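Please decode residue identities from the backbone states below.
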């Protein structure tokens, strides 16, 4: 059994794929789903999919980012996941957190890093790709270190941008790839093939 924690902030479609392709088959066990937003639809998905996965909502409230991340780090040091999976988690983790879980945190980014780094509510990689006239788009799965979207790349998958693509079609294509490859990478890490 390979225990993981999944961190979300919103929709949770990647979480859903991880439940179906990693947790339900059995070898990987989601020991908790952390959300920094009590309204995240991903929390509803957890309750609908498998009531034995505990949702763990921890909002930042009046805490500083440092205080918030320290509290989260301490919670993770108690539950001891072997891997922390960021799946649409909107907070930038502090170096204190990323150093405490060196090579134990992965993230999925909806673009071909190092291009289109970024985060925050207004970040939209699909819009950027169209505005920049990019010929291709894709996904990046990477280890997380103290540099935002800068950790070592584990896997990228790409596809051509077509003349009739829109933000919506690009988002759908990106999500389709994410839902295949993020669970695949997690299973390979659990098996020890990716270290
Ligand atoms: C995904 O596109 C992922 O690449 C990015 O945030 C999005 C989360 O989507 N980090 P969802 O919440 O899993 O549907």
């Amino acid at each position: 059994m390979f225990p993981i924690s999944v961190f979300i902030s919103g929709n949770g479609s990647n979480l859903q794929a991880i439940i179906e392709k990693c947790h339900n088959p059995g070898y990987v066990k989601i020991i908790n789903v952390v959300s920094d937003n009590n309204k995240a639809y991903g929390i509803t998905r957890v309750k609908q999919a498998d009531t034995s996965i505990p949702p763990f909502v921890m909002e930042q409230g009046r805490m500083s980012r440092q205080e918030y991340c320290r509290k989260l780090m301490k919670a993770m040091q108690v539950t001891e996941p072997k891997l922390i999976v960021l799946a649409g988690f909107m907070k930038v983790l502090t170096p204190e957190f990323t150093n405490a879980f060196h090579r134990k945190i992965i993230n999925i980014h909806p673009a071909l890093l190092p291009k289109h780094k970024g985060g925050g509510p207004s970040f939209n990689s699909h819009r950027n790709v169209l505005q920049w006239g990019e010929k291709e788009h894709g996904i990046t799965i990477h280890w997380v270190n103290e540099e935002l979207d800068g950790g070592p790349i584990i896997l990228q998958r790409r596809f051509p941008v077509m003349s009739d693509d829109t933000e919506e079609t690009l988002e759908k294509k990106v999500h389709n790839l994410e839902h295949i490859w993020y669970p695949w990478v997690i299973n390979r890490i659990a098996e020890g093939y990716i270290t």
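Observation: The two ends are 17 Å apart (CA to CA).
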